[in-house]
Each structure stands twice: as structure tokens, then as C-alpha cells.
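Reply to dn_fold:

You asked what the input looked like. This is it:
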Amino acid sequence: MFAHNLINSRLLDILRCPSSGLPLKIEGDSLITIDGSKRYPVVAGIPCLMPDSAEPTHSGYTVVVDENQKQMHGCKSVTEKDVADYIDAMIVPTCGNLFRNTHLNGVYPIPEFPEVFGGGSVLDIGCNWGRWSIAGAKAGNSVIGIDIHLKSLLCAQWLSRRLTPENEPLFVLADARYMPFASESLDGVFSYGVIQHFSRENVGVILSEVSRIMKPHTKSVIQMPNRAGIRSAMILARRGFSDGSAFDVRYYSILDLVKLFENRIGKTEWDIDCFLGLDVHARDRGLVSPSKRWIIDLAETLRSASKTLPFIRNFSDSVFVTSTKS
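and this is what came back:
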């Protein structure tokens, strides 16, 4: 660690200016490009590497940027209550509608991380309050979480220090369209419940950035929605089968997903994540209200049935897309 700003040296080695791609160096409580042309703040050890020229993806993007500025110039730390309140407010956006009206009371739904990364350096895109970053750290990976909301990263940092003190993830304020990392610097990329919200054009940009920062022959694992899923088809019908706008979920066919990811990254396979929604898992059964547990039970029944009737896989609502960089 560099004591004066708490930036991990391993992280500093791979950080780059999101606008120019130039390496960064420490100057006071900031990071500057090696040519001195750009300066970025560091808040509680979190490098804030959002480019000024980034085009907002939706109206909420501008709101978040304004909130970040207030956080940078105001209180730069969070308390246990701040974290609990924030996660309660974000539990539905990050974990799904099954958690609506659920009060966690300090019990946080940390999932199981994919095993394909084998303990390497893994980027978690859109980490929010850090549940997947923490899961990745618990699985032995060196995780870097990025998000555009500074408050979420401060909460993720606080929670990870409590839950994975022996292997804390690192966090960076960043836009996935402008990855502030050196080319071929990471052993893998993961994302859950995030990239589905971007326009198809921006998804292409993000996947190109994912490929750029991955080392050769490494993997990305990214959750995406399947338009043939049972609940997905219902939602699409309700909105007139439009592609969506702003921060709406975009739904893809399996064929389109494989083609898109193979064109941007490399050889691609897919597997079931869950049925009947975009985050419906047995691991959360004890945390949601009893009146909603039947949905999880039915989803798990469909998962079991798909093992003997493989065609059922095609109707899973959420899938993991795994790509290997050529």
C-alpha cells in the first residue's frame, strides 16, 4: 500500500487513463497521467477514473455523476448503518424482485462464484455493493470491482473488509465502456445483472473492452437474459416486444448471444443460470418471503428437469455466457 492514499501497488501497475490509455502516477492525493494532462481523484483508496467526455447511457447516469461529486467533496467514509441502509435500498435492483419487501437485518446474500477463474485476477463489472466481488474473493480470486456509483463502492469496500479481510477486493470508480486498465492485464472478467441494461451498441463497446484487457486464452463469464425464457417472453409481450430504452433490460436469443460474444471475444459457450426470472436461486430461499418461495421451488424443478430433458435449457430466463479469448 501507498500510505498517503491507500492505493494498492498491484492495482496501480495496471491502471490507465480511461481517455488516453496512458499510465498513471501518484501526485498528492490524486492520480495523474504520466504526461500530466489528466488528473483523477482518489477517495478512501478508490481511484475515480470516469472520463469527463463519457456520454450518459440514461438519465440516471447524470444523477449518479452528480452524487459522486458530492461524495468526493463531502463525507468520504461510510458506517455500518450506511451500508445496511444502502443494501436494503439496492437489494431489489441487484438481487431481483423476489427480494421486494425483504429486510435483510445484516444477512447479505453472497452467491457462489464460478470456478473457471482458478484464483487469478478477475474484474467484476458493475459490482454495486460488492456481493459478487466478495464471492470471488471468498473463492480465492484477486478481484477488482468497478461501478459508476461511488457510494456503492464505499459500501462494497466496507463490507468486503468485514467479510473477506484476508483477501479484500479492490474497487475502482469506472465506466465499463472506458476500462481504465492496461491491455492484456487481467486473468478473467465477470459480470452479473449489468451488461443486459446497455444498448446493443454499447454492449458491443463493452465486450471489445473486455477482450482488450483480458490476457490471451483467459475467460469471461457474463450473465445475460434469454428472450426465449418463460418470464422473459412475458415481459417482452407486455412491452410490445420492443428492444427497450434507457436502463431497460435488453433480451437476446441464444444464437445472437453466441454470435455477439464470439465476434468480440472468442469461442463461446452458454449454460443455465436460472428459470422464471433473472436471479432466481435456491441459495436465496431462506431470505425471501415465504409467499415467494414457490417460484424458487418451481425454478429449481425446471433446472432438475433440464438435466434429463435438455431442450428445457432453451427456456431458461438467465444464462451464463462463457467466452475464451483467442
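The CA atoms of residues 227 and 252 lie 5 Å apart.
Hope that clears it up.
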